[in-house]
From TrEMBL, chain A:
It is found in: Cell membrane. It comes from the Bacteria. Belongs to the binding-protein-dependent transport system permease family. It is a multi-pass membrane protein. Keywords: Cell membrane, Membrane, Transmembrane, Transmembrane helix, Transport. The keyword 4Fe-4S does not apply. The chain crosses the membrane at residues 12-32, 101-120, 132-157, 177-197, 238-264, 284-307. Residues 98-300 form the ABC transmembrane type-1 domain. SUPFAM superfamilies: MetI-like. It comes from Streptomyces spororaveus. Coiled coil: none annotated. PROSITE patterns: ABC_TM1. This is ABC transporter permease.
UniProtKB/TrEMBL annotation, chain B:
Residues 1-21 are annotated as: Disordered. This is Diguanylate phosphodiesterase. The lineage of its organism: Bacteria, Bacillati, Actinomycetota, Actinomycetes, Kitasatosporales. Residues 113-478 form the Solute-binding protein family domain. SUPFAM superfamilies: Periplasmic binding protein-like II (SSF53850).
Length: 320, 560
């Protein structure tokens, strides 16, 4: 498939997906109980005039489709609207909180990839007791929900040892933020480390059994080179295809980890905005999450042919 | 008003989605579904073992600060969405705002009302209130406060386009005018005994007209707040913390701390951990399950104070079995109140048969108290009698639904207690678990209350007047979810609203209290005190719920 055709198709698909997702989320919010106007009034009774005024300001009385298309039109012009709860522009709300969440996710991703690949690789190559040890630890890692991991890490490293802060994202520079986000990123990464280690291990074991590895060994290629060139590279494709799953897990679990550590990023904001039916905010965050999810898939599709010659652009290997 | 520190965490069960190539629609759906199933990987929080306390005594105050400190850090359970005083109607925003913005009147730590930015409030006739302002008061922007600022500030509360949470306080106000450079006159359509009391809450806040107009539509979320309090808004690190800085041009007693930092700690155990580790020096609204840990930690002191809060079972459906007063009485008789206080309130609370707290009646004479509190339905259990009542009402085996949620033990354990009580007296009580975020909708959306007969409700008064709660059973009142309507009751509410002399008014309120308690419109369960923790470094904060509208942080200073 030519690259141009591939690009056009992917962009069209992304646009269609974002549109569908925005419609689904908007519809779900619309059907959920509760009226944002009454949340705005914080459980006080309101005069009919005040309610009418809010409904008019935020167009809450308009029919569903009218509201949806008005929102869509604004978004296409780059206007994400005003948060009903926070009484400020959604773009500003997100700008304040997005960096924290992105840093947390990137930190977790680095930990997941580094540790997960390493564990999977040594388990496959060394076998024996090392393999068993890795299997046992990853079983624990996969079985520990990140919320539990958060509580355990907090108890041990923050409360008892006092090495790390127990919550928050810091308010100093980058160093302070990294220090604050260490425990949360580990809590977020734990489950995925286990998963990735297992995927890497089985993909490498499969590759170790393959014919060309046997051939390479018989030709006297040093074992290190065999592992690096043939085994590891061949298994990278499989590992890469789990990348999408990893990032989507990070995006979803960040909601709970942010809450456990009171980090106050996008995840927590999403949770709170859903609570108060803050349409513009929930819509914007959902779009960001779906867009990130798709962007990761795109990157995976672009990288796959580079690491796995058997895959051509736009087709996924059947190894998943 | 009602809120409990929310808790998060849900459990989802789901199949892991298979991944492959997807069509757009399917992709979007899968993204959502995968999200749901992935939550299994990071599912909800483990249950913390409840740690209650015994021997709870309410403290009137905490030791006075010995001297100044540079800064202290305070834990709050949520971030205020905005600090605009007109929508400040919940614990987190009021806890912060009370130190930055001041009102015409002032609520004291003893829960009485005294002059604030107005040095005198006079009532020349039943429908007129004249506020004479304190001269020489400066806003944080350096401008001097005038009558124009007051007219403007109260005007924002009344403007329907502004959707103020406090608008209802002004329902009887006909006009607010400047009658002198430092005098504002409020004309009422009819006498209103609640209005002058509310001028001590965020409803009576005075801001600088110039500052609000300069901030425009971002007022309350960025920049200064244009107020007069002992602290001014410093850096607001969104989602993280809010910093207040001492205002040196303050007209009253200067704050003892140069800085007060509010840390947003949404997770209850994170909040407790921060207080144990010293990351936070203290906090109000301590999670009940942490009472014991904090009390025995040795890092500081856990105080309890008067909270004007009662925990109740709010009856929302009178069209079902609960429409029969005998069933409501039976449930009340079967409820294990002391068991609930032990488990649900961490032992800090007292069982009650009254919808209002005793402290709300502080101004009432002894005989009125007798009328209000004597011969209310009993708090003790009488299963036999309750069972007989259910039979008599023909409700044996009838199903009732109580809503529950994981937002706090005061909710979840009360729902369980109601279920246990019902089971013992021949009722079939179903629990309907509602996600924490949907629980709030019970207050705001009749649709959300469909199919629910009752739900646990913690209610606090914003002023020291039982009418604040008792007016909820007036026909058409906002919290009157059961749609109760009794012309006699309504007439008494109107009477009480129109009577200014407090002793006379409370006589009427005692009748209301009796009526509401007899009818069991809500089933009262317990009085819930406020909890306050401060570590060994600091002292001085008030123990009572006055912290919602009183500049309490100015009193916090060094313990030694």
């Amino acid at each position: 498939m030519s690259f141009v055709r591939f690009a056009v198709r992917r962009v069209a698909e992304m646009a269609a997906t974002l549109l569908t997702a925005s419609f689904v989320v908007f519809g779900a919010m619309y059907l959920a109980p509760g009226n944002p106007a009454s949340f705005l009034l914080a459980g006080r009774s309101a005069s009919p005039e005040a309610l009418a005024s809010i409904n008019a300001q935020y167009h809450l009385d308009d029919p569903f489709l009218v509201r949806y298309f008005r929102w869509l039109g604004d978004v296409l012009q780059g206007d994400f609207g005003r948060s009903i709860t926070y009484r400020t522009d959604v773009s500003r709300l997100l700008a304040d909180r997005l960096p924290t969440t992105l840093l947390l996710i990137v930190m977790s991703l680095v930990v997941v990839v580094a540790v997960g690949l390493l564990l999977g690789r040594i388990a496959a190559v060394r076998g024996g007791a090392t393999d068993s040890a890795v299997l046992v630890t990853t079983t624990f890692a996969v079985g520990t929900p990140s919320f539990v991991a958060a509580v355990l890490l907090q108890g041990l490293f923050a409360v008892n040892l006092g090495w790390f802060p127990s919550s928050g994202a810091g308010d100093g520079g980058l160093g302070d933020m990294l220090w604050h986000l260490t425990l949360p990123s580990v809590a977020l990464a734990l489950y995925l480390i286990g998963m990735l280690a297992r995927v890497t291990r089985s993909a490498m074991l499969e590759a170790l059994d393959s014919d060309h590895v046997t051939v390479a060994r018989s030709r006297g290629v040093p074992e290190r080179q065999v592992v690096r060139r043939h085994v590891f590279r061949n298994s990278l494709g499989t590992v890469l295809t789990t990348g999408g799953l990893i990032v989507s897990t990070l995006l979803v679990c960040t909601i709970l980890v942010e809450t456990a550590f009171s980090i106050g990023g996008i995840g927590q904001l999403l949770e709170l905005s859903t609570t108060t039916k803050d349409f513009p905010t929930v819509q914007a965050i959902s779009l960001i999450i779906v867009a990130l999810f798709m962007a990761v898939n795109l990157v995976v599709d672009l990288l796959l042919p580079l690491v796995d010659p058997r895959v051509t652009l736009g087709t996924r290997s059947a190894a998943v | 008003m009602t809120t409990t520190p929310p808790r998060t965490g849900r459990r989802f069960r789901g199949q892991r989605g298979q991944r492959g190539r997807l069509r757009p629609v399917a992709a979007a759906a899968t993204a959502v579904l995968t999200a749901a199933s992935l939550l299994a990987a990071c599912s909800g929080p483990p249950k913390e073992k409840a740690g209650g306390v015994t021997d709870v005594r309410l403290s009137v105050s905490t030791p006075e600060a010995a001297g100044e400190i540079d800064s202290f850090t305070w834990a709050v359970y949520a971030e205020p969405p905005t600090l605009d005083y007109t929508v400040a109607f919940d614990y987190p925003q009021n806890t912060v705002l009370s130190n930055v913005c001041e009102s015409l009147m002032r609520w004291t730590p003893g829960l009485t009302t005294e002059p604030g930015l107005a040095q005198k409030a006079s009532n020349p006739d039943p429908t007129t209130w004249v506020y004479d302002l304190r001269p020489g008061v400066r806003f944080h922007d350096g401008k001097e406060m005038t009558a124009d600022d007051v007219v403007f500030s109260l005007g924002r509360q009344r403007d329907p386009d502004n959707a103020a949470a406090w608008a209802q306080v002004f329902q009887n106000v006909a006009s607010i005018t400047k009658t002198g450079p430092l005098q504002v006159t409020v004309k009422l359509g009819k006498p209103d005994s609640q209005f002058p009391q509310y001028m001590a809450t965020a409803a009576g806040v005075v801001v600088s007209k110039a500052a609000v107009e300069a901030a425009g539509k971002d007022y309350g979320t960025t920049g200064g707040l244009g107020c007069t309090g002992p602290f001014q808004l410093g850096t607001w690190n969104k989602g993280q913390s809010i910093e207040l800085q001492r205002f040196d041009g303050y007209w009253g007693t200067k704050a003892k701390s140069k800085k007060a930092v509010f840390r947003v700690l949404t997770d209850p155990s994170a909040r407790t951990n921060a207080m144990l580790s010293g990351e936070a020096d203290g906090g109000y609204l301590i999670p009940t399950e942490s009472y014991a840990r904090l009390k025995s930690s040795g890092t500081g002191t856990l105080y309890f104070g008067e909270g004007l809060s009662t925990v109740n079972v709010n009856v929302t459906n009178m069209r079902g079995p609960l429409g029969d007063i005998r069933v409501r009485r039976a449930l009340s008789l079967a409820l294990d109140r002391s068991g609930f206080v032990k488990a649900g309130l961490g032992g800090a609370g007292t069982v009650t048969n009254s919808l209002t707290t005793r402290a709300a009646w502080a101004a009432a004479p002894e005989r009125t108290l007798k009328t209000a509190f004597d011969s209310l339905p009993p708090t003790g259990q009488d299963i036999e009698k309750a069972r007989a009542l259910v039979k008599e009402a023909g409700a044996d085996g009838k199903t009732l639904t109580v809503a529950t949620s994981s937002i706090g033990q005061d909710v979840s354990l009360l729902a369980t207690a109601v279920q246990a009580a019902g089971t013992r007296i021949g009722l079939d009580i179903q629990l309907k678990t509602i996600a924490p975020n949907a629980f709030t909708a019970l207050f705001t959306d009749p649709q959300a209350r469909e199919g629910i007969d009752m739900f646990p409700l913690t209610y606090y008064d914003s002023i020291t007047d039982p009418l604040d709660l008792l007016q909820n059973f007036r026909t058409g009142a906002y919290m009157n979810f059961a749609g109760y309507s009794d012309p006699g009751y309504d007439k008494l509410v109107d009477e009480a609203s129109a009577v200014y002399p407090v002793e006379q008014r409370m006589d009427i309120e005692a009748k209301l209290q009796h009526h509401a308690s007899e009818q069991l419109l809500w089933i009262p369960v317990a009085e819930w005190p406020t909890a306050l923790f401060m570590n060994k470094r600091i002292t001085g904060a008030p123990t009572t719920i006055s912290y919602m509208y009183y500049p309490w942080a100015a009193d916090v200073g060094a313990a030694q």
